Give the backbone structure.
Amino acid sequence: MKALILVGGFGTRLRPLTLSVPKPLVDFANKPMILHQIEALKAIGVSEVVLAINYQPEIMLNFLEDFEGKLGIKITCSQETEPLGTAGPLALARDKLLDDSGEPFFVLNGDVISDYPLKEMIEFHKAHGGEASIMVTEVDEPSKYGVVIVEESTGRVEKFVEKPKLFAGNKINAGIYLLNPSVLDRIQLRPTSIEKVVFPRIAAENQLYAMVLPGFWMDIGQPRDYITGLKLYLESTRKKSSEKLATGPHIVGNVLVHETAKIGEGCLIGPDVAIGPGCVVDSGVRLSSCTVMRGVRIKKHARVSSSIIGWHSTVGQWARVENMTILGEDVHVGDGIYSNGGVVRPHKDIKSSIWEPGTVM
């Protein structure tokens, strides 16, 4: 069985992290975003993953070479020379996706994090006998999204309503699909939207079915959603494999700490924190709702909340970093500095406080 991951573009919404690596390689819960998806695909028997990419394929492939061996899965790239939307990349990768088996293949949006109930989706797809299955998730504010109207008894998709002004339903496209090879015959090699062009046509022929995604879902392509996604991911980890989470008198709620990280005395860590490999957290530090990536040092009595601290950065003593501050790689925040939602490019030294949210340094 094969899968295509829509890796896409430049990751501008996650800058300054994506100034150092392509977006799929940005760490989430202590491993690159894309690895969560590849591991889930491998677990249900996918043998080959194709990455649809238009940006830095050599960096992606060099990085993922290690994981090909470890996971025992083939990883290849299909590179766009121009943006092809969300359907065009399937036409471009047609020869990689088709084989003699006639089996359906998965398509995943690279920004999506969830429990990946892929085994259940295969069973759902076989049971309805249609041409395509999409995963949908239920949201509180459907007006921000395109809504999928589904026949409740069968799961058949009736139509799509783009950002409805009046309530039409609360199910939205979750960016996980299982498609028969025949769907490729519907897609031409040009910029096309699978959501707005291809799926409505399949639905009009009563061949598109929607499975409601059990468990959590989040598109983590921008910082606020990334932090929310971490909270949901850690909640799910608590339910499914709580032994992976940290415990101790200094831990509050759900916290993930890499085995090589060092945490000093008198700290208060959590809730909803991920601390990466080789990190050093000095004594008296307070961390909540944040990601601290590989090689970071947080000095004594600093406080970090609702923020992302990029690789090999330093937060000084008594510094306070909060309100969606994002530090790129190798940023050094001075002692006693306050950052209120600062966005700091890689390799910068911050010697004066950032008072205005969204300030780019």
